[in-house]
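step 4 of 6: structure.
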Amino acid sequence: MSVLQIGVIGAGQCSRETGLVAEAVGREIAHQGAILVCGGLGGVMESSSRGAQQAGGMTVGILPGFSSEDANPFITIPIVTGLSHARNVLVVRSSQALIAVEGGYGTLSEVAMALTLGKPVIGLHTWDVSGDIIMVATPEEAVQKAIHAINRAQ
Amino acid sequence: MSVLQIGVIGAGQCSRETGLVAEAVGREIAHQGAILVCGGLGGVMESSSRGAQQAGGMTVGILPGFSSEDANPFITIPIVTGLSHARNVLVVRSSQALIAVEGGYGTLSEVAMALTLGKPVIGLHTWDVSGDIIMVATPEEAVQKAIHAINRAQ
Amino acid sequence: MSVLQIGVIGAGQCSRETGLVAEAVGREIAHQGAILVCGGLGGVMESSSRGAQQAGGMTVGILPGFSSEDANPFITIPIVTGLSHARNVLVVRSSQALIAVEGGYGTLSEVAMALTLGKPVIGLHTWDVSGDIIMVATPEEAVQKAIHAINRAQ
Amino acid sequence: MSVLQIGVIGAGQCSRETGLVAEAVGREIAHQGAILVCGGLGGVMESSSRGAQQAGGMTVGILPGFSSEDANPFITIPIVTGLSHARNVLVVRSSQALIAVEGGYGTLSEVAMALTLGKPVIGLHTWDVSGDIIMVATPEEAVQKAIHAINRAQ
């Protein structure tokens, strides 16, 4: 993988404030020349995709359902799985690091799967369930730490 | 589903003490006439399967790999998925309630997936990450609460 | 796997005549002491499950959807996957041999997947696309050839 | 999906002649401004990806294994699934039409899955198992027919 792929995980519905954080994460991923990987739907997924696309970046949406039309409007490449929640594992595997923005049980499941698979997890106001999650305070720091963790792992 | 299916989740390797707890959980599931569903491998999965089978119960092992020979010796029905960690979602979906016995990140991922899908989760010395997890102190109480939660949901 | 698991594949809707053939296949699988594995829904899956259960056998239904209630009434163990058509691969992997009864494109897909994975395929009035499919004329012969092929492979 | 995604399926190992056909298919997909989707490995997948990338196109490789490094060198976006053969369904679902270039049982399985899901299938020297497969003689014709079928379906 020559180009970095960074995953963004979070709830499918979110507050305006959380959406702005997610958008800034996506924008910073694009600025760093990385590809944003997410679940392709709304909320944090849509806001981060918007940020990335508006900054000229590319976005991959790994969709749970049966149609590419489920993708939010800021997805460059829709991957249609039909696997429902089992697609979460693919979001984790297809990312070299993951940034969790808040999130509910679904996000916790992805965070735990990422830790299971040994992927770096950066947390922004998210589940504080393990010292292995790198907690940060800003979107810029999140992306910076993600790239740092990827480079250190190689 | 006429017969109850109760999932047991936990680490693939465990201490002797944890194994005894898991075995008692499996035994109690069989005594209650339910089928035990698990990931089919070692540790908590194997101990609970042993307990169930020795008490005359039936066990289903939803395996991550490519061969039924990966199953521990106490699995009645091996389901071979070849899906690796994505098979965790199937353990959750195929159970009407889940009992988590300790466990690491993999177990946390399954606990969170169960909560995402609205399945009752009973915890024995496991991740205390949500008030939605019904924490109990003994294997018998775990199975009792699981059956109670299933009946209440119907 | 101490007990043989034999898969039965075919369309989710079928004629009365085809249903009788599928039922006889299921009955013979049970008579031979093997477990019947199928996709858990209607048509050939339901008829073969009925035959097996009425002959005292056990049946496993690997369901594409989200609820065990999707299973036909003759399924002993429902496996709920939520994977839609991707569950076909699990039917193949969880069977030591497969018997195809007629069938459309979905069945052809499973036949081809079974051949890809090196599983014996027995055909009853089904897709004649390869010399590797063992074509037979009767349900009894189908189960006999399946068991013979499994034993030879071990 | 604003940009067309066209799948190319075929064996993981192929003759030099078949490779040249696949390469021309990939090149034509890129010339038409579509994204090439494939299984990401060698043979027909690699040759078609090479053709697409050298013509300035984008390629998506939906990998069966656990590492993006399994991808052939001409994959722009590796999707890491860990699902083994079950990933074939994702190649089909993520494509609006599929072009089959020769191929063995694995390809037949994907062709049948595509027909099951109602996707147009264009065949180049491939399994002639159904009148629903649009058989063509040249790579250019294959891509032309694929785009025509997609447009007609919308």
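step 5 of 6: annotate
 - Chain B has a mean pLDDT of 97.
 - Helices of chain B lie at 16-31, 44-54, 88-93, 105-116, 139-153.
step 6 of 6: archive
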